[in-house]
Amino acid sequence: MWDPERDLLPYHDADELGPDEPLSARGWIPWVLGAAALVAVVLVLLRVLDTGDGDAPDQAAEPSSAVGSSSPGADDAATEATEGTEAVPQGVGERLDAASGAAFAVPATAPPTTDLDGDLVAYEAAQMGDGNPATAWRTAGSAAGQSITITLAGPTVVDRVGLVNGYAKQVAGVDWYPNNRRILSVTWTFDDGSTVEQALAERPDVQQVEVPPVTTSTVTLTLGEVTPPGAGPLGRDYTAISEISVLGRRAG
User: Which pTM does this prediction carry?
Assistant: First the structure.
């Protein structure tokens, strides 16, 4: 049988316990701080390890790709500058009037006439390129809308064109310029299809207009507005061109 007197220690042999003391309300704070510090250390280690494995190679590769490429805008600007430079033909040699020695194809030519001195006067197309404003090509009536094709001796970089827009001959006190029709506007067309418009004044000298340099072997002159026939007893119903000028340099 179990004997409580024999089997239990006497009360005075047990550990002396003091009176019950209440636990402090802040007794858990050191444990929480310790746990937080441990978590912080782990996060820092993970961040360092992650940066070493992944970010460093990417950052090292970034400058390499930047060096090997250029911005699209810079490439386009460089290309445009190069194309702009190459697109403007320069020509070689001395500047010349390519109309001299050119071939002229005209719609029609008026027959020869006899002048006041009794001399026979012809109005052939080639006279537009002979350098003499007293000779002319002439056609009957208004030639508005008609075209003249000028075939040059070879490819030429043209930068200026012009013409004497009527019959500039003066003889025996007679000025034939106002006595024939005068051309008031023309259009110049080149091999690449580009065109230049020219308005003309009523004066018997060469009137020229600048052309953006263009390489061409032919020049087409289309007549626009033309004046009425000359007035008075010496008035004539003819349209005339005394000279055509095509300035430029031989194409290289």
Answer: 0.66
Closest CA to 107 of 137, 128, 135, 127: 137
C-alpha span between 207 and 227 (Å, rounded): 17
> CATH classification of 92-250, choosing from 3.40.50.720, 3.10.20.540, 3.40.50.1260, 2.60.120.260?
2.60.120.260
Cα–Cα distance, 198 to 227 (Å, whole number): 15
Q: Please tell me the distance from the alpha carbon of residue 170 to that of residue 130, in angstroms, as a whole number.
A: 17
pLDDT value of position 47:
73
Tokens of 206: 């060469």
Domain boundaries, the chain: 92-250
- Per residue in 32-77, pLDDT tens? 576 677 777 667 677 766 655 444 444 444 444 433 444 555 455 5
Neighbours of 138 (CB within 10 A): 30
Residue whose structure tokens are 């000779």? 135
The C-alpha atoms of residue 37 and residue 42 are separated, in whole angstroms, by 9
